[in-house]
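Write out the 3D structure for:
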Amino acid sequence: MPMGYCFYCDQTVDGDTCPTCGRSAWHGDTTDQTIADLAITPTPPESPNVPWRPKPWMIAGTVVGLVLSILTVPSGFQQVTTPTPPPVTTTTSTTIPRPGASLPTYPLPKGTWLGLIGTEVPPKTLTATFPFLEPADDVMYDGSLLIHTSDSYVRVTPDGLHTDLPMGSPARFVDVALSPDGRSLATVDTRATVTVWDLTTNEAIEMEAVPVVDALADGHIYWAPNSVMLGLDAGGEQSFEWLNDGTLLAGPLPGRLVAVGSTHMALAVSDGLNLTNSITGLGLGTVELGNTRSTISEIQAGAFDPTGRYLAIDATIAGQWQGVWVIDLNDPRQDLVAPSGSVFTWSGDGSALYWTDTTGTFAFPISSGYRVASVSNQKLHLGDRLRVYDPALVAAPSLLVRSSDLFELRDGQIEHRSPSGLAVLDPHSGGTTTSIVDSTSLNPDLPLLRTVEYEGDGTLALQLTTTGLIEQLVGDLSGYGPVTSVLNAPGYGEFLAADPDGVFRLGPEQTLDPVMEGWSPGIIGTVPFAVTSTSIERLPRDGGEPETLLGATGLAGTADILDAVGIRSEMVILTRSLVGTAGVYWVPGDSTLFGTAILPNSPLPNPTPFSLVYTPTNNRTFETGWIVPAEDGQTFALALRYTDGIETVVMTDPNPGQSTCGGQVVCQHFSFEGRPLGFSPDGAWLLADIDGEYYALSTKGRGSVRFDEAPPDEVTWIP
């Protein structure tokens, strides 16, 4: 018998079966080739097949031939075969984990449980105190199990208490899916009605109706990692996407939905894998890998990481065999990490892809040189799904506020929030506080700046300690309103902006010297600037005059400038167009619009002087808008006020080499109807007023926290 080859063990085999792993050997002229050489062989080798199990709540007698699938969880799995395209040569590495190979051990983060869940056997212990004795569908946000009976879905708490959930009999639904944060359960029935059930309040939100001609017999729900968006694959022919508040974002879109991310949807179409923008619903085209367009086919399952940069997908890339690939949508780079049919999921922070096959459980750490590591010897069995339970991802106020660093202004009164609740801050100077601003950059010992109105005695800017017991006069603001921001620009001085349209320099002996009419002082590179309706002005050194950095006329179609933020050596500018719609422009520091003012040592000007990175798809005219920046140097919130309310879009301008936008210079993470109040110092949480209630929204895919019924007027989060 001719010699064979085992791709999993990277060794020649004498016979039909590999003695190391027990898999079938590949026969052909391979004895002098390596795995990398074999990656471009026209015919893919045999990959192990994992049987598929019908959903447990499917009624007996459902249409014969229905594609079998595993119980859907976010980015669940289903097997659909499409024709294999002609091979395309590629040089991508295709090394997959091998049984018996010496793999490093991957330590799970403290408190994290990673394990297999099935509907026929109980999950293994979640923690030392959480033993469970019955099969489960999923794990909820508090460590409870989600199970089902013939009559209902049931919550099983760690102490064994069983509570029926309100959605009724599982037989009503074509599919269900638990959100990644474990707080919501999405269901879809045969009328294609998608409902999101809040598992903390038992309230139900019905998603905006969609047109599905025939009764839905085969549908799959997919959640985005941030639990804010979800999608429906309606029978493999058309797909839809909603916000979890019921708003329809996109659809019907042609193709079979594979995964929903924070920035994109992935759809299997006839010519490969299509990406569609999750915010706008606009198609971004077929995925291209390497220098040549490599068709992706035989797509079975997919999952975006929480950042949206990486897509894990069980598929065949032309010229290579089928398996689970991790695709870097920014590079694009692709790595074959697991055999086809493995079940996989991302860690809560996106630092690793976990998967389980018939040999064990593994991790592919994104941040550690792309090297596969071993997690445990848990092996895949029929019907199993892989689930991560990470207590650090369970949003709770105690995780957000660890000390008295969050200050809120309500009706002229300052309050600070701590794990024990709210406490009134009562500065000894009295007066009515009209604004609060973080002034750590001016004096870390007096990090809270308040604007104070005194009846008949004018307006003052005062810095104070977080206890309010020590205050220091900054200057007299009589004739102006509240302070909106402060800026410490090394070499230029300390600046303060106050309504309406006043930029001041902090002078000696508690004086505020007027510099210019403008707002939103910031820094791009090392250059301080302020905004006017017609230009971006360079703030002068003491004794100088402002200089124009960029005029509104340089941005095509712009009527006036509303706001701008500096992000490293780049600038993001909010404008009103000539037809009254909003536009967000990204301008690099080496743009010809700036000349050499920002990057004087740049060898050549950027051939792209600016990019339009956002404009509302509905083309609505708006009243005004502003940008709320985070202190992490990349995250910001765009707020647009319309006649019927405020729409906010959370965006990121990533660091070079860390783009999470699929090639776009600015990411759009998610949007909501509500007013942004301010970010946590690390940019991980955005405080917001949504329908008159106070929420903290995670920008890292960790869900949301409802802080209070009544939102404050202003917030400032002292680092």
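Confidence is low (pLDDT under 50) at residues 26-100, 280-293, 395-399.
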